[in-house]
Design goal:
118 residues, 2 domains, three-stranded antiparallel sheet, 5 helices, 10% strand
């Protein structure tokens, strides 16, 4: 068990969340509450669900989810729900399928002439 705990601490850093002093827990709780009050100032009419975005674009919800994973939309996470910015959905332009074109290639160097007979 001790070995497993050592491996976990090595992988994820010190596990001090449950051992934090009471003052630190209070400070964390106050910061969390401050973040909650800051988030209440958001205009939620600018954010729509992924399924609503899919209906707007006439695609599947999975297609919108894939675009979110690729970082093509700004997102807002509220209570485990991922909302996307309405303006991003309206102005979305799909990229061309396939790999991106390669950069302009420089011409190959001319082959060096071999020693010609004199």
């Amino acid at each position: 068990m001790v070995r497993a705990m050592h491996v976990l601490q090595h992988m994820y850093g010190p596990l001090r969340a449950n051992l934090a002093p009471l003052e630190n827990r209070r400070a964390l709780r106050e910061r969390y509450n401050d973040r909650l009050t800051m988030s209440t100032n958001l205009d939620l009419s600018l954010w729509i669900s992924q399924s609503e975005a899919a209906r707007w674009r006439s695609v599947s919800r999975q297609a919108i989810s894939n675009l979110v994973k690729k970082g093509r939309f700004r997102t807002l996470n509220i209570g485990g729900k991922v909302l996307v910015h309405r303006q991003d959905v309206e102005s979305f332009e799909p990229k061309l399928p396939g790999p991106a074109p390669k950069a302009v290639r420089l011409p190959k160097k001319a082959a060096k002439p071999t020693n010609a007979k004199k």
